[in-house]
Design brief:
Length: about 350
């Protein structure tokens, strides 16, 4: 056993054999192919599916599997982000790993952790935040500076080792983590494993705030978190302690400009929403951004980059998000009228 990975409360279900089983790899393949089944890379993989999965299984079990370097592109939505796209073979492995790890690790997550968890998500996080601001007159909000870029690999692997005994699985996780960032820190935005690992990394902060500080009303969505309380002094002091914990225990720094202490009656801005005791509104900047996504998808359809099914799925997703909290219902056709000068050359007729 590697001395870097001490065993404490390990789980016998977390093994490399389960990750590399043909059934798990096949299920992982189906998940990884969702959303882009017609890409040449996936079609080539599917043409030799059984052969590819059996070879991948053997490489995982004998330790010869090495993740490839991802392809990066830059996204401005709204701020600059470097997005990583792993080769399809590696995405299959990512899903295979998360399939086995997720059910075990999620058991220890607090109830009010909402990112990358089944049956949670932004809508439930926003609704829960409204419940808390109705209950508590003050809140303190924060998020982590350059969160994905500053996650410490050794600390993350030590967290994994508290549950994972199997050295083969720990070795595979280490390969994914080390290939993901630089030598000691960082996870790329875009990988499924990055989302899972990043959520796990702040789980100890959740338990410190809930169990150590005794905060009853608290929630987190990835690296955005809010402490609710009964006085300005209370939430200020609790946030200071949370900031010290992030610095000393996790090697993370909170964004100074994003640290905000506010009165619940005046509303909370969280996950792109204006949350008030009596209503929830989509912030105008987020509404404009969502509509801009619709325009981009429509242009892509017009020039043949995506089919009608993909266009419809994208529009339904954006509209569902906007309408979930909008008091005035939004209809897709509002943004593609034939007489709209902004849509010249984009008519659906």
């Amino acid at each position: 056993m590697d001395r870097r990975f001490p065993i404490t409360g390990h789980d016998q279900e977390l093994t490399l054999e389960r990750v590399a089983s043909f059934h798990n790899l096949f299920e992982a393949h189906k998940k990884a192919a969702r959303g882009c089944p017609d890409s040449n890379e996936i079609l080539e993989f599917d043409f030799h599916l059984e052969k590819k999965l059996l070879a991948l299984k053997m490489q995982l079990l004998n330790g010869s599997y090495i993740p490839a370097f991802p392809r990066y592109f830059t996204l401005f939505d709204p701020k600059k982000r470097n997005i990583a796209v792993a080769p399809f073979r590696d995405r299959v492995v990512h899903h295979a790993v998360v399939n086995i790890l997720e059910p075990v690790f999620e058991k220890r997550f607090i109830f009010d952790s909402y990112a990358s968890i089944k049956d949670k998500g932004t809508h439930r996080a926003v609704a829960r935040a409204q419940t808390f601001i109705r209950r508590c007159p003050w809140y303190a909000k924060a998020d982590v500076k350059h969160y994905f870029d500053t996650i410490n690999h050794d600390l993350l692997l030590a967290m994994m080792a508290k549950k994972v005994q199997d050295t083969g699985l720990l070795s595979l996780i280490e390969k994914i983590v080390k290939r993901a960032g630089n030598e000691t820190t960082g996870l790329p935005i875009g990988n499924l494993t990055s989302q899972f690992f990043a959520n796990l990394y702040l789980d100890s902060l959740d338990h410190y705030i809930k169990d150590g500080l005794g905060v009853r009303c608290y929630l987190r969505y990835m690296d955005d978190f809010v402490i609710f309380g009964w006085s300005q002094g209370q939430v200020t002091e609790q946030m200071k302690k949370a900031e010290i914990y992030c610095n000393d225990k996790l090697g993370l720094v909170l964004k100074k400009k994003a640290l905000h202490i506010g009165k619940s009656a005046q509303g909370l801005t969280f996950l792109g929403m204006g949350i008030y005791p009596g209503t929830i509104r989509v912030r105008s900047v987020n509404r404009r951004r969502s509509i801009h996504r619709i325009y981009k998808k429509h242009r892509a359809w017009r020039i043949g980059k995506i089919n009608e099914e993909k266009l419809a799925e994208s529009m339904e997703s954006v509209m569902a998000h906007l309408n979930h909290f909008s008091q005035t219902r939004v209809r897709p056709l509002e943004y593609f009228p034939n007489n709209d000068k902004r849509n010249k050359g984009m008519s659906t007729s």
